[in-house]
Structure formats: C-alpha cells, structure tokens
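Subgroup meeting minutes
Present: P.N., E.W., G.H.
Scribe: E.W.

1. P.N. recapped why we're keeping a running log of single-chain structure predictions: easier to compare across weeks, and new members can see raw inputs and outputs side by side.
2. G.H. added today's entry (174 aa).
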Amino acid sequence: MSLEDKFYLLVVDEVRAQPGMLAELETIRPARRVLQVLGKLGPLLGPTGAPDMAVNAAGVVPKVITALGPEPVDLETGLANWQASFDDLERNYMALARSALVHMLWRKTYQAEEAINRAKYRIDNWAFAHVVYGLLQGLRGDAGKAHFELYLAVHREPYPEARDRIERALDLVR
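Output recorded in log:
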C-alpha cells in the first residue's frame, strides 16, 4: 500500500474521530453519501499504521473513492455555506479545517489546501489545522512536509487520543 493510500485511510479515520463532524455533515446534502460509506467501514489502520487485517490493502482506497462516486457539483456551495454559518473565529477555524478533510475524501487537494490555509491564517498556533495540513501533505506523497506539520501538531495537541492519531501518522513518515 502506498504512502498516499495510507494517508487517505488516516484522513477517513480523522473524519470519523472528530467530535460531532458526522452530525455536522448531515446538513450538507451531498455529504450524506460520505456518511453512508464511512458507516460501512471498520477501523482502517492498526496502531502501527499497518492496514487492519480486515482490510483488503490492495483495494480499499479505490473502493472507498468509487463508493463515494463523483464529487457532487453542489458540494462546494454546501461547504461554503456551512463555513460561512460560523461567525466567530474558533468555529470558522474548525469549519474550514473540517471542510478540508471532506475535500480530501475526494482527493481534491487544491480545494483542501485553500480551506486549510484559510484556517491557519485565522489561528495558526492550534494543532488541528497542522494535523489536517500534515495529512494533506501525506496524501500528496510529500513525507518531509507531512512530518514537519505533524511534528508541530503533536507538540501542540492537548488531547491524548488526538496525539495518538498524530503519532500514528508521524510513524509513517519517520
């Protein structure tokens, strides 16, 4: 399994790990397909970053992307409206970072980078945007940039469960 595919699985796990994110995605009509697919998947990577034994490592990423289907045309509008609905700085930061994760599910890395850069512009000293940016760099196959961002994130992350997920990603690029 390629580095990019492993990072894709980490993106899926990060989406599922974010508190309330799946419920928030319910408000975006096209994202319901994402929820249906994610609900059918079990844990994708084990603690060492190796694919879970229940996962067909050679084909799981293409199967997830195929199950999602083409990115809905109105996803951009839905995400933009969702982001704009959060007036305060902290909520807007989270909405931008989470929307980057959604774009990454379809491997829309340019749109994901735009969203995450806007989040980092708002609040650059929090861990979450650096986690997402690190996952994005891993998804692009750039281990050096992924390591840099994830290293920043792991030292800023106050929550043990999130630090464990970051460490799992770091293990792939050390």
